[in-house]
Amino acid sequence: MLRAFSQARISQSLPVYAGDGAQRAEIEREAAARGVSQQVRFLGFVNQSQMPAVYTAADVMVLPSDYEPFAVVANEASCCGIPVVASDRVGAGRDLIVPVNHDLIYPCGDVPALARLLSQLLADRQRLRMLGNAARQRMESWSPRETIAGTVEAIRCAVERRRCN
């Protein structure tokens, strides 16, 4: 995400990292090496009860994970009316993000694609608001029935692949 942000050269925007983890020092070094450390904010640990304030202060949430079986943060941001951009390796993409807009999913590791997507989104505040509203509406319509149907479909696909081998 940080590489994409620096490539996109987005003015009047700042990446905000919530949480304290093993990668924080690496991300801080990367920001300094790319000359964007003055534009990046590290909030450190944020109590779960404060996360809605973090989400609603954002224009977009980016989840560039190379492995994320589901990603509850996608649910949380969407409930707060924040559009979610995610790599194609985030499990929530199919259920929560694609129904909002399939263009919000990009190929994992494709930094130029993420940079283009961020540039487009952050240049169009009206579109961001519409996507945020659509994300919130998606969460209002999402149900356990859909979760069960998705699980059954995943199992069906896994069984069919096994038979093919």
- The number of helices is 8
Number of strands: 5
Q: Would you give the CATH topology?
A: Rossmann fold
Number of domains: 1
The portion of residues assigned to helices is 40-55%
N-end to C-end Cα span: 37 Å
Give the CA-based shape. globular
Model regions low in confidence, pLDDT < 50 over at least 5 residues: none
CATH hierarchy: architecture:
3-Layer(aba) Sandwich
Descriptive report:
With 165 residues, the protein is mainly α. The protein has a single domain (2-164), classed as Rossmann fold. It has helices spanning 2-8, 24-33, 51-57, 72-79, 92-97, 111-122, 125-141, 144-164; strands spanning 16-18, 41-44, 61-63, 84-87, 105-106. The strands form two sheets. Strands 3-4-5 form a three-stranded parallel beta sheet. A two-stranded parallel sheet has the order 1-2. Helix 1 (2-8) packs across helix 6 and helix 4 (72-79) packs across helix 7 (125-141). The longest helix is centred in the last third of the chain and has 21 residues, at 144-164.
